[in-house]
Amino acid sequence: xxxxxxxxxxxxxxxVVAMLTRMSSPRTPLTRLLTVLLAGLLAGLVLxxxxxxxxxxxxLATRAVLGAFDDLPAALRTxxxxxxxxxxxxxxxxxxxxxYDVNRTDVPLAEIAPTLRQAIVAAEDRRFxxxxxxxxxxxxxxLVANVTGGGTAQGGxxxxxxxxxxxxxxxxxxxxxERQAATDQTVGRKLQEIRYATELEKTLSKDEILNRYLNIAxxxxxxxxxxxxxxxxxxxxxxxxxxxxxxLLAGLVQSPDAYSPxxxxxxxxxxxxxxxxxxxxxxxxxxxxxxxxxxAEKLTxxxxxxxxxxxxxxxxxxxxxxxxxxxxxLEQPAFGATEQEREQALRRGGYRVVTSLDPDVQATAAAExxxxxxxxxxxxxxxxxxxxxTGRVLALAVxxxxxxxxxxxxxxxxxxxxxxxxxQAGSTFKLFTMLAALENGRTLSxxxxxxxxxxxxxxxxxxxxxxxxxxxxxANPARMDGYRMxxxxxxxxxxxxxxxxxxxxxxxxxxxxxxRLGITFRAGTDADLAAHDADNWGAFTLGxxxxxxxxxxxxxxxxxxxxxxxxxxxxxxxxxxxGSTVPVGTPSCKQVLTPDVARAATDAARCPVGQQSAxxxxxxxxxxxxxxxxxxxxxxxxxxxxxxxxxxxVGFTPQVAVAGIAANPDDPSDxxxxxxxxxxxxxxxxxxxxxxxxQPVRDFTAPSRELAGNPQRPTPRPSPRTPEPEDxxxxxxxxxxxxxxxx
Length: 743
Description:
alpha+beta; 5-stranded antiparallel sheet; elongated
């Protein structure tokens, strides 16, 4: 005969002992002895508990059974329960997406419907407001019900005990083993739970405990806490729940997966709702008539799934921006010492992130990109928009769809990173040569009689070699050859002028200028040349280095901000779950150019877009239509890489800089062709127009006479007028021929 059945060979007490024996694991002599002792204690309680006053019973339990306990775990004092983080657009209202491992958000008790508070107490712990954390009378009642059979199994745990268990099993500061131990079916764990609950009741008020419980309890279908549950099942806040809805949610916590009307048994959920309503009548929270009315109410669900991560962004085309923000987040020490800690902070920290994304600019950029190439095209038009003076990224758009499905991609096509090193941006890099020259004593009036082909000092082989020296050519000699200054050299995109100018300054200074303005060399060969052989990188001025639309837009934004470089940032503000502001997102800016040098470069950049410089020296353009589209002071530059493999345009006003590069991200040998340049220009110009819509018209400040120099030109050589592509009175076949020859 087993010693576990001494004095109780049959009947309820034998089943009590058997139940406790199963709870004690592993079965060591010590735990078996503890089981016997506890069984005897609880068996006695079954017979005598009803005669003892509740407060006396709780005191006896604490002193005689549990002993003294004065130290609560930190997680119970200040819970570190996981919450989802919200990402909003720059208006602070447009939700982009959420990040979470656990779908939950804390809400104060005042924002939870009173009917839900009453329902949860009635369903789970009717004596909640009278016991001291461990209701031994209730435990004894549950014990009798369970061992005698019949009815629904009862757990006997108070709301406070359930709260303790939920916190300990989800505490991110504990190990996986410690979290698992919080739900082990052992006597030792139950005793610890009672100890913690009793001590917690001395520390927190009943309403504080109830509020914490409602914010952490699992309600099924992936929803933790009443805020997530109310949204998940009914698409509303917990403050707006009806009595019937409150009773349904309260009924779910006993068996969330089984009772969930979305993922489980709808009829079982309704039956459980009826039980909760009856319990509310028993506690006096509602009348029988109110219960009958709620019971008759039809169950109407409005399931609302919370987006999770960048692939689930709710705002159209925001996935690439979201991905950029996540990559930025993982680099910020404010969110943790390691990348893993920062990832966990994003998914479990409960942050409210107001991003820099402008919904209107983003929508325009995405729509314009898809006018050029459809979403399933191998070619792409990534477009980036940046705010000068802050570095805030207003848009990152591309014609592709962000995701992991067929025809989708998660590669950072706009911002670069991972396998994306960027794309050649052609003549847009002439800006860096012009800036380096202006900074090193040249003026905008610096003149040179630009030949069709220029033999340089740089060694070369192949087609671009003249006697072993690199000899680049102008793409359109009729429009480009002849005496040029910086204004029309930039406006007409004269290759030989800027290669000559680069030789005068030294390529190393041009490379350094590009880096100063934020150009990152992601390709290994580019980084190696920049680090070890920059002074022989003669082709750099023609944009042979890979870059991204974001880097390019931010570099031009530096010029628009009169020489103030700001590190690009995707956020305006980040608020922690406690309402405190996290010190990230503040513009990080520094002066990298004198304002006058930046103004001089801007003055020349008025020429390519069909506007006039402050000194009246613009006499040719490659993107004259931009002036008509934007309709206010604007500057910019086109760029075509060799054999028109890529086509680029970057434009700016004092309030925004936008860059777009047409390319095949997966196959650089697949040339996009010159014909698409006009479409790229239009897409970028329309994005600029949206960005400045409603903002005051601001003009650029003219450079000093000192940097302008003395714009005296020699008598020009006679040359036939070559119409620009924007001239609509020429036959389309002639226009196409001209576009194909344009540099």
